[in-house]
Amino acid sequence: MAEPTGQQLTGWDAATWRTAAGDPSLRSTVVGVCLLDSTPSWERLRARVERLTRVVPILRQRPIRGLFGVASPRLATDPDFDLDLHLRRMRLAGRGTWQELLDEARRLSLTDFDRDRALWEMVLVEGVEGGRSALLLKLHHSIADGQATVLIGLSLVELGVEPNPDEPDAPPAPEATDISQQAVSLADISDNFRRAKGAVERAAEIMVDLARGSMSDPVRTWSSALSTLASVGRFTAVPDGPLSPLMTGRGTTYRFAAFDLPFTDLRGAAKARGHSVNDAFMAAVGLGLERYHVRHSVVVDDLRFNVPISLRGDAGDRSGQASNAVTIARFTLPVAGLTVEERMDSAHAQVERWRLEPALRWADPLAEVSWLVPVPLLAHAARASDVTTSNVPGPPIPLYIAGSRIVGMYPLVATIGAAVNVTMVTYDGSAFIGISADERAVPDIHELVADLRSGFATVTGGPVGGEDPLATPGAADGTPKARAVREEHTPSG
Question: Are 120 and 143 in contact (CB under 8 A)?
Fold first, then answer.
């Protein structure tokens, strides 16, 4: 019987692992903060998380490496998996303020994973103001993108205060055995050979298709081939540096902030202009960043955006796994002196252009090729971006965890080389905005947040929650959507 040597990280998963391991400024963590209206039952929570690790097997898998260190790690079930090493609870030592909670989330994010155990942690934080608590979930980006994180969370939550009725029993815990390094090394060699053989076969198929096309329709064939090559060139081009003359510094630490606003306002603003929610979201971020530069008497015409584009549902995606099913589009957007509609038009045009890029279907193979690129060069490319934006749809109905209602869902993602990361998750009628900012690039994160909130207020024309959700009227009774704060703003353009 063959040894259970697990599955090797490939594509974007492997590239994410390698860059995070090779450069501390590219630390790749996703932290989700679920704000709860009360303190959940610890026994019920522990049972729910135990069940979660059986429903989502990757949460019981650890990285294992071979003897030669020339391949990405494999993920295999940990024979020593111990839930208590991944799930813990604590109480805030101060008054339980929102800033104290963000500080704990930051410490969790900036602390590296134990790379001999499963790549996640969960912390129940008690003692939050108003009798509330928070559940912090930390994942390594190599095992989950934003949408996968939401999917993992849906296996944890419940539909009401009481346990879910008629919920199927959890599957049995996956079996695990010790795996020798020799077995891992042989499996790596076998996998690498198989992938190399597949690459050669694909190359041969391409050459045959080119030969046939050259005989039947040479103009169309070579036009398509050259278009694909040009697309790959655009996809892999390494910029000289960030476009912002202000947010130029890069370090190994970042700060978190967050706010929220009614999702109907954002969706309505987009619909009124014939655009998507993502177009409106990016327009608000661009406007906020422009105002932040103006605050510092700096004029910036364009900024370089990173935007994850989901491949879920595309042929060959791996969305059935808790892994990355995205590629990263990197493009410049004008930010100076535009109307809200012009900002949406620009964002829409750029994202759609990238969705149509022929290189998009080569995302995973190109990520595999990144093993031939030195990490410092990859880090230089990552630091050339000014901002990463990500929009993740979440559940539209209220959800519960072990008897406590979730009243806020805040995504806090490492900057991964960019100056700023702005991620949005929608949940139960609200849009929750999480911000991380490199401390060298943005030493005054509160000013940045004020300008981003102003940008969202301008785009939506409606109220935007404050930087401290716990101080928002209505939050104490579990209804944080009672936004009483309306930003004062000057219409753009």
Answer: yes
What are the C-alpha distances in Å from 84 to residues 29, 123, 438?
Answer: 20, 11, 32
Cα distances from 87 to residues 84, 305, 414, 464, in angstroms, run 5, 35, 21, 34
Domain enclosing residue 331, as ranges: 254-391+427-477
Report if residue 351 sits inside a domain.
yes
Task: Specify the number of domains making up the chain.
Answer: 1
Answer whether residue 305 is part of any domain. Answer: yes
For residue 392 the two structure tokens come to: 């993740």
Residue 368 lies in a domain: yes
- E strands, 276-386, in order: 302-310, 326-334
**How confident is the model over 451-472, as pLDDT tens digits?**
999 999 999 999 999 999 998 6
387-392 β-sheet, strand order: 254-262, 430-438, 420-427, 387-392, 302-310, 326-334
Give the whole-angstrom CA distance, residue 272 versus residue 283. Answer: 14
Q: Does residue 30 lie within any of the structural domains?
A: no
Distance CA 390, CA 413 (A): 10
DSSP state letters, 381-438: HHHT-SEEEEEE---SS--EETTEEEEEEEEEE--TTSSEEEEEEEETTEEEEEEEEE
pTM above 0.85, yes or no: yes
Q: Is 9 helix (H, G, I), strand (E, B) or coil?
A: coil
Nearest CA to 386 out of 270, 288, 277 is that of 288
- Supply the CATH number for residue 261's domain: 3.30.559.30
Q: Alpha-carbon distance 125 to 259, whole Å?
A: 19
- Residue-wise pLDDT tens digits, 302-352: 999 999 877 655 434 444 444 555 677 889 999 999 999 999 999 999 998
